[in-house]
Structure formats: C-alpha cells, structure tokens
Q: What sequence folds into this?
C-alpha cells in the first residue's frame, strides 16, 4: 500500500494482516476452594513449537493479604514459591520466586518483569480475557496483537510524493485457551 518512489510492489493484504486463531497452549484447570485456600490441578498441553505436557499442583491463599502461591510439578520434581505480580507502574509488574528441584538437588530464585505492552520496534498488546459460561466454569483466552498503525503522509515541492499511505501491519494470535473448573465450599 506504499505509493512512495521506492518502486516496490505493495504488500498483499495477507502479508499485512495475519490473525492466527489456533492456540499453541491448552490448559485444563481444576480448582477447589477450601477454607480460604484454592487447591488446583493444572494440566497444560503445548502444541508449538513441540508437543509437551505438564502437570502442576497449585496452592494459593484467597485472602488479599497473602501475596504468594505454591506450585509443585510432579513430572520434573520441582517446586516453587511465587509472589503475586507486584505492580511497579501502571503497565509494569514484578514477580519473584524461590524454588527447589529434587532431581538436581538445586535451589534458586528467579525474578521476572512483565508488561502487557512492548516489543522490538513494533507495538504489542498482550492480554487475557475471561468469560464465565456458568458458575464454576470459566474460559480464559490469552491473546496477543503486534501492530504498526496506518500512516498517511504527503508533501508538495520537496520531491516526495504528494500522497503516501502506509496501511500498517497487524499480526494477532490466540496463544492460550484455559478451561477453569472451580468448586467452592458453598457449592
């Protein structure tokens, strides 16, 4: 869509706008709420770049004062104690954790800065959207959109085109689908 003097053919719409609706991650989460705690079993299936399966046991306090969760991965003999995401700014979060791997007899800690925005030269939005289908059953979709906004420019008497349009780019994908089944004490 660039009508500049570069002489290149404009890109096709398929190259400019790509939306992938095949998720690379499928999660099935079973949760039971017991006396202020959530006990969960996560079965995680990854189909890209290679097929992989993980199981996790998760223990998480439900009260807002508690800022941690415990995760045990029986396949890897690995456990972690993770903090909740701590907001640093409106769009920047910090998460810290300590863990131990029983097979390797190793203990260590990690930290992670995350944001829903960013990318390398391209704007990116990452988000999760939840849909409650009925009490006790939710679907959560993790999606991502990398984009360059359309741009219209022009000039007169400068040797540049009088009208120039860059139609932008969009690459969006549905990265993760989670089915969450929750059973609470009140059910």
A:
């Amino acid at each position: 869509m660039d009508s500049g003097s570069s002489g290149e053919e404009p890109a096709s719409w398929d190259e400019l706008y790509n939306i992938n609706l095949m998720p690379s991650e499928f999660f099935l989460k079973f949760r039971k709420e017991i006396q202020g705690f959530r006990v969960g079993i996560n079965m995680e299936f990854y189909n890209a770049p290679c097929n992989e399966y993980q199981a996790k046991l998760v223990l998480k306090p439900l009260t807002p004062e508690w800022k941690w969760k415990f995760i045990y991965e029986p396949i890897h003999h690995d456990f972690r104690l993770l903090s909740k995401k701590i907001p640093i700014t409106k769009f920047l979060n910090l998460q810290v954790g300590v863990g131990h791997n029983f097979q390797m007899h190793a203990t260590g800690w990690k930290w992670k800065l995350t944001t829903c925005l960013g990318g390398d030269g391209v704007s990116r939005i990452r988000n999760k959207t939840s849909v409650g289908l009925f009490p006790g059953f939710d679907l959560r979709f993790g999606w991502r959109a990398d984009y360059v906004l359309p741009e219209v420019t022009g000039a007169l008497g400068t040797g540049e085109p009088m009208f120039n349009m860059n139609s932008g780019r969009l690459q969006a994908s549905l990265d993760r689908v989670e089915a969450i089944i929750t059973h609470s004490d009140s059910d």
